[in-house]
Amino acid sequence: MDERVQRIIADAVALDAEKQTKREAEEEAREKAAAAKAAAGPWVPSSADPKVAFAEFQLHLRAITPRVRVLPTVFALNLLVFVAMIATGVSALSPTADNVLAWGANYGPRTLNGEPWRLLANFFLHFGALHLAANMFALWSAGAVVERLYGPLAFAAIYFTAGLTGSIVSLAIHPTVVSAGASGAVFGVYGALAAFVLRRHGAIPKVVLSRLGGVAGSFILYNFIYGAGHARIDNAAHLGGLIGGFAAGAFLVRPLVLDRPSERRRPALISAAAVVLAGVVVLVMPRPLDLQTIIKDFAASESTIVASYNATTQSFDARNIDGPQAANQIEQTVLPPWHAAQAKMESQSRAWLHKNGGSPVQKRVLALMVQEAEVRGGGFAGVAAALKREDPAAAVAAAQDAERATHRILAELANLKL
User: Fold this and answer.
1) For residues 191 and 244, is the Cβ–Cβ distance under 8 A?
2) What is the pLDDT of residues 209-229, one digit of tens each?
3) For residues 337 and 305, what is the distance between their CA atoms, to the nearest angstrom?
4) Residue 413, exposed/middle/buried by CB under 10 A (0-12, 13-18, 19+)?
5) Treating both helix axes as pointing N-terminal to C-terminal, what angle do 360-388 and 392-415 enclose, rounded to 10 degrees?
6) How far apart are CA 328 and CA 322, in angstroms?
7) Torsions phi, psi of 202, nearest 5?
8) Do 161 and 278 meet the contact criterion of CB atoms below 8 Å apart?
9) Among the listed ranges 4-18, 265-279, 320-334, which one has the minimum average pLDDT value?
10) How far apart are CA 408 and CA 49, in angstroms?
11) Helix H segments across 357-418?
12) Half-sphere exposure of 64 (CA within 13 A, CB side)
């Protein structure tokens, strides 16, 4: 091999070895620096002056977590959803329960009957501007500090977990109450702050704790006391959020040191655990009933069964089947599911009235539904009997009588406002 080529190769090998040695030295220096920081104990301010200590702690947190990303995103989402609600005609000061329910409020009969997404959606909704302002003020007061203590991903996991646990506890304790608001998630932020303080004694200066403690104490005390005297304030969600945030924070606590590595696995685990918990609750909790659910379920069954009946009569009219065959299909594919749907609706109606009493209008609605079920069922049976004896005129008369009676009942139902 040419001597010049050998020299080039040797120089390249030496350069690589030098770079590797430099990298190893830099890594060793970083490890020593981290060990020195850990051995030095928790960060302490350089001054006993409260203002100076508070300012130094804020600078220290900014050095650990330079940018706060999740807090302004959550804040903006709450505002945008509220603006969107107003834009669709919802009152800015006193929206009704039905208004908020339409946007995704937590409500057992809906949440547990095919709409579990309400467990998440409800903590971005609010019962008016004052409700929103109180929650956003409390969130902004401590949110930046907590996000810098834990880091953006962990803060997002805490907020998400607390919001879900607040929704779950609310659902378990008050399944028939329409619940919405970020306060459960906000309680969780303060719960995470408490967990950090307990897990990292002395890591936060007393002056900072006194300021945050004042805001936290006022927020928590006010909400629990105010909620105790107002039916629309859900203290169950507050308690659930506080517990969920504390548990998530205790699991996600990290040291307040510079250059701490980004942590993704544990925030993902705690978020996944919250989702699994929500799924289990949705699966195992009994399904509470409300009037709209009873109406909706019966209407869905009615639509399917009437479609089957119409298909049979159309086949008969087209002479694809004779009268006895049509009667047999009605007796086998129409009447049994109709009687089952009617029995279910009547059973649910009795249970709902027993528990809730119901207004005169609500009672009338349920009574008319029972009447309609009886009329339609009688009509189906009358048509089947006439077709079985091959009397098409009697079948038409039975169908028309049932249709006229059903039309009168549906017209009265349409005029009743629940």
Assistant:
1) yes
2) 777 667 667 777 777 776 665
3) 7
4) middle
5) 170
6) 10
7) 80, 0
8) no
9) 4-18
10) 81
11) 360-388, 392-415
12) 22
